[in-house]
């Protein structure tokens, strides 16, 4: 029987033979995956992947499995390989780890640490009270992960609240840095000792990267200038810290002037100009303001590194023990956070209607039109939003990889493209794999 099958395959043209061979090899690999793992419910989906619960049969350990169809996309395959290569070298308590990878000509199955606590942003929003101590514990853990990443020569390039996850739903959670789809490695011209003044200066001034990639409203000035290094992560982290303690993004696209908002965004970022006259900012302690200002410094060589930020007085005064009661309340920040969220809810005011799914975010990103559940008014103005703002989503949108074998989506412009999405400033999409999932555990599977 097998001989007959081989003979039949040999009679096929070369292309048909290779296609059939790949199809059968893919089936064998898929069968092998199911033998090793019990695949559970679907957690979420993006343009380039689907995410499932998975339990390893041998160990009974739970993981998040991301199934990625390659669809003949060479750029997607390169991007996935690059991401997996980076994840294989990382192992840290505050970074989502890679457990296993299986691949075939048509698919890649990536098994990641299962993180069930969801996104930090949603947790903070749901808290009745929020304090500098609460924020400080989260900031310290994220910084611990960033310090490790940078010591390994890895730049994340997409640090934002949507990529900062909680290990578990309870209060005793640990922070996890996720989604390494934009990550890359940095090579230094000399052996760098990051803890010495000279080594730290070399680290800060090493800026070989030119591609504009990441979440634009969290991008550092030097990223827009197309010459950056690891310190770009620290600016992005500064945007995260600001939002945690002030309740709003420092460069909120909904508050930009409607005439050429992209230009205004870049101008604000390059000047490090963000709101410092709000009640939430004034309520923040002197050390807290100093921490944010040290991170949101336009010049990379003057910006706080991860090592310097860990030693900042604001963190030294904030306990890492979650059992310690809160002291410095951030009530004004919580009020600002909830007010901003309310302005983004659907007209019926139900939070459920405003919870974004990855698929809806993708459609919004590709069409430039927000789903019906999104508000179409500029915050506080009552005016319709321009098309460039309507596609803005939280927590993130996802894009497929476009190359010569795939149909490229329409050009995605305006502030919508400057908030949550991967893009390249020259008018195309970076050859980079980004996948998202829903909030309820599926975000744990973001590579």
Provide a descriptive summary of the structure in words.
It is a single chain. This protein has one domain (118-440): Transferase(Phosphotransferase), domain 1. The radius of gyration is 23 Å and the shape is globular. The two termini are 43 Å apart. The relative contact order is 0.15. It has helices at residues 2-10, 14-36, 74-88, 120-126, 132-151, 197-205, 221-224, 231-246, 261-270, 279-283, 286-295, 306-310, 313-316, 331-343, 351-354, 358-367, 387-390; strands at 37-45, 50-56, 62-69, 98-103, 107-113, 154-155, 164-166, 175-177, 184-185. The chain contains 17 helices and nine strands. A five-stranded antiparallel β-sheet has the order 1-2-3-5-4, with helices on both faces. Strands 6-9 form a two-stranded antiparallel ribbon. The chain has a two-stranded antiparallel sheet with strand order 7-8. The longest helix has 23 residues, at 14-36. It is of the alpha+beta class and 447 residues long.
Spans of at least 5 consecutive residues with low confidence: 321-326, 346-447
CATH superfamily: Transferase(Phosphotransferase) domain 1
Strand fraction = 5-15%
Report helical residue fraction.
25-40%
What is the alpha-carbon Rg in Å?
Answer: 23 Å
Oligomer type: single chain
Count every helix, treating DSSP H or I runs of 4 or more residues as helices: 17
The CATH class turns out to be: Mainly Alpha
Helix and strand run = HHEEEHEEHHEEEEHHHHHHHHHHHH
Q: Could you tell me how far the N terminus lies from the C terminus, measured between alpha carbons in angstroms?
A: 43 Å
At the fold tier of CATH, the topology name is Transferase(Phosphotransferase), domain 1
| Secondary-structure arrangement, i.e. CATH architecture | Orthogonal Bundle
